Amino acid sequence: MAGPAGTSHGYARPAHERSAVIDLEAIRHNVRRLAAAAEPAKVMAVVKADAYGHGAVPVARAALEAGASWLGVAHISEALALRAAGIEAPLLAWLHTPESNFGAAVAAGVDIGCSGWELEQIVAAAREQERPARVHLKVDTGLGRNGATVEVWDRLVGDAVEYQDQGLLRVVGIFSHLAVADEPERPETDDQLAAFREVLAIAEDAGVDPEVRHLANTPATLSRPDTHFDLVRAGLGIYGLSPFEGQTSAELGLRPAMTLRTVVSHCKDVHSGQGVSYGFNYHTAGESTLGLIPLGYADGVPRVATGGPVRVEGITYPVVGRIAMDQMVIDLGPLDVSRGGHSVLGAEAVLFGDGADGGPTADDWARAAGTNNYEIVTRISPRVPRTYINESPLSGAPGEKPATGATAPETPAP
């Protein structure tokens, strides 16, 4: 009978029982691909939500190395963490509450998105810090989330210009967000683009001379050059995932950067009719071998994604039975482990990766869960260590000794 990992079958013992392995060269490749599509516009790499689960600081550094000019996050707290890591690139945070720390943002040179209500708090922070705030005015061109409505836009612009004349702020940018750019055939993107051009004209007539005008997200970067203006905000694409139904990452020239993997933690023969996991929603059709995969919904795997793929020794198996908090089960077929058959105990189990070898992808798990690939990678929990490959010698934090060689060993996330 085979032994555990690292013994009779020679499986290399991994650094972690389970990990999300992030290929930083894939991040750099994707940024270069998006930069080429956006040219002459510049690229803002969106690293909100811990870089969609990939690790904000390592991804931000890799994106800047590859040519991104800006970084974008949702919350000021995310921006401050990047500044604390020594990242000094232009940085925009755009989603706030009345409790947001505008003073810290101004002090750290973080650009602040402003939909209207925030303006007075931003100005108060600028007075307190005795330095002008850097502001991007946001207009709602149809998405219906934050951003000033077109009806109040001229008033917001007028107030901002007045504060700019007083030296309390600088209107660095004007921006909006597209609702359906991932469905290129829909006409609403044309409507939003027309509205954006109109509000830009209003701002220019009022004396605003923004450094950057930005509207395009990843799908618009790849499919709508008329939306690029001065800057595109690329999120999903820098992680190598496709925003389009029916188009793969490879077809878009993108490389998925995250591989979610673990090892088979238990392997046993069972009789026909064996129930599997809570609720007994699955029973084996015959004598079979069950493999236990030590990842579950506490690790960010969707509980509803029964049937999601797991690749072991070059074969992809669907998850059977209900996904539990810490584990799930795959049906390996009749391996006869108890009678000396080949065991996969300790073998690597990959839930998703770049798919280059025909293995499972985040898109496969999204289909199993009835969601999108954004959610699959973003929801991987902090309980799963992030490890990094292809780190640049230049990407260490200030004071760190640079790695030697082009590829650094896997290291835990900071």
UniProtKB/TrEMBL annotation:
UniProt xrefs under SMART domains: Ala_racemase_C
Residues where N6-(pyridoxal phosphate)lysine is found: K48
Listed EC numbers: 5.1.1.1
Biased composition regions of type Low complexity, renumbered to the chain: 402-414
Protein's GO biological process: D-alanine biosynthetic process; peptidoglycan biosynthetic process
Coiled coil: none
Pathway(s): Amino-acid biosynthesis; D-alanine biosynthesis; D-alanine from L-alanine: step 1/1
InterPro entries tied to this protein: Ala_racemase, Ala_racemase/Decarboxylase_C, Ala_racemase_C, Ala_racemase_N, Ala_racemase_pyridoxalP-BS, PLP-binding_barrel
Active-site feature positions: K48, Y278
Keywords: Isomerase, Pyridoxal phosphate
Keyword Isomerase (UniProt): yes
A Gene Ontology term for the protein's cellular component: cytosol
Residue ranges, annotated region (Disordered): 388-414
Record: residues binding substrate: R145, M325
GO function terms (MF aspect): alanine racemase activity; pyridoxal phosphate binding
PROSITE patterns, A to Z: ALANINE_RACEMASE
Catalysed reaction equations from the record: L-alanine = D-alanine
Names of the cofactor(s): pyridoxal 5'-phosphate
Job of this protein: Catalyzes the interconversion of L-alanine and D-alanine. May also act on other amino acids.
Protein name: Alanine racemase
Organism lineage: Bacteria, Bacillati, Actinomycetota, Actinomycetes, Micrococcales
Gene this chain is encoded by: alr
